[in-house]
Amino acid sequence: MFDTMTFTKIAASLCGALLVLLLGQWAAEELYHVDGYGDQAYVIDTGADEATEEVVEVAFADVFAAADAGAGQRVFRQCSACHKLEDGANAVGPHLYGVVGRDVGSTAYGSYSGALNEVADIWSPENLNAFLENPRGWAPGTSMGYNGLRDVEDRANLIAYLDSIDD
Questions:
Q1: Segment 17-71, tens digit of pLDDT
Q2: Which pairs count as long-range contacts for 58-63, CB under 8 Å and 24+ apart, including other chains?
Q3: Which domain holds residue 154?
Q4: Which helix (H) or strand (E) holds 105?
Q5: Does 122 reside within a domain?
Q6: How confident is the model at residue 166 (pLDDT cuts 50, 70, 90)?
Q7: At 98, which CATH number?
Q8: I need a labelling partner for 47 at 20 to 30 A (CA). Which of 58, 67, 124, 160 fits?
Q9: What is the average per-residue pLDDT within 96-106?
Q10: How many other C-beta atoms lie within 10 A of the C-beta of residue 75?
Q11: Overall pTM > 0.85
C-alpha cells in the first residue's frame, strides 16, 4: 500500500505547489501594481461641491397636532403582526388598546422587559414617539424586535390612531 515516503512526497508536492502559487502572486502584484491613476482626462460635474440644503427638524408636538389617524391605521399593519387592538387580547406582544396614557407594564402581559420600566412611567405620545423611532436605542435591553419607524409623520399618525381606538 502506501508507506511513509509516499505520504512525505505528497505533502512536499502540496507545499511546493502552494509556494509556487504564492511566489507567482507576488510577482504578478509587483509587475502590474499601479500606485496612482494620474489626472483624469475628463471630469463630470456631479454637483457634490455645492452646498447642501439644511434639513429643518419639526417638533413632534407640531407633527402630532396635525396627525391623521386614518394614515396611522395603515401604519399599524406593521404592528399587527405582534400586537392586537382588543382589550386584553395579548399576542406576541401586549395589546395596544388604550396604550396612549397607560402606565408602562400595567397590562396582564407576562413578559415585559425591565428596560421599559426604567425609562418611562407612562406611555405619553412623546415616550411612544421616542420608543417607536428606535426601540432598542430608547430602551436598551427591550425584548421588542422591531427596528423602528424613521419617519416622524408615520409615528405621529400611528400614535393618533392608537389614541383614537380607546374611547
A1: 999 999 999 999 888 877 766 777 777 888 776 666 666 677 888 888 888 889 9
A2: 58/152, 60/125, 60/126, 60/129, 60/152, 60/155, 60/156, 61/126, 63/152, 63/153, 63/156
A3: 60-164
A4: none
A5: yes
A6: confident
A7: 1.10.760.10
A8: 58
A9: 86
A10: 20
A11: no
pLDDT tens sequence across 108-122 = 776 666 777 788 889
Q: Cell 416622524 appears where?
A: 152
Cell representation of residue 86:
382588543
Please report, for residues 7, 13, 64, the alpha-carbon distance to residue 4 in angstroms, rounded to integers and kept in the order given: 5, 14, 81
At residue 22, the pLDDT reads: 96
* Domain count across the chain: 1
Does the CA dihedral 12-16-19-25 come out positive or negative? negative
> Is residue 52 in some structural domain?
no
Rounded Cα–Cα distance for residues 44 and 55 (Å)? 27
